[in-house]
Model the fold of this input.
Amino acid sequence: MKSRVLCSALTAMAPNRSEESWLAGSSVIAHLLERIPNDIDIHHLRQGAFEHAIGQDTNVLTRLGFVAIESKVSSGELERTFAHAQGTVKINWVLESERPMPLISDPTIGVRANYTAIVARKIEMYKHDRLAKHREDLLCLLRKESCIDTELDIAFLKSQLAALELRTPTMTRSSCTWPQGDLK
Done:
């Protein structure tokens, strides 16, 4: 699930994404989830690309009417919250040690990590913190396996979840498409 604000921010920033500045995390798979992710993760290998993306993305969002209301800096990461009349969106620009391969050139949201890399990280986070959101996201992906099977080995995902003692859900018919909508 995606909010209009998240959708608008992702599509507006899509031209800024590249092999040097790619999307990762739950926002990439938001159209497959039953919850609305609360942030957008943008990853980089180099400090220069990291700084350039922060400037570009902030400019794009400002032109759309967003206002930066809060920033948090930590080692290799800047988290900035932007407010808009339609809601808020949090952007996390992150320095990474390696690029997931292959990166995918998505026509809607720009260059992004592949589903295998996103799911592998989500599995690792669930192993570490056991947060319900990671568990529910992983189970939701299994319910929508036909939407992700071109990028992800479903048998591998099922075996990883079985090792974590997560039950495979009943298959349901589901949508695999991004919602449309611009902020007005």
Observations:
- The two ends are 20 Å apart (CA to CA).
- Residues 47-63 form the longest helix (17 residues).
- The first strand starts at residue 22 and ends at 24.
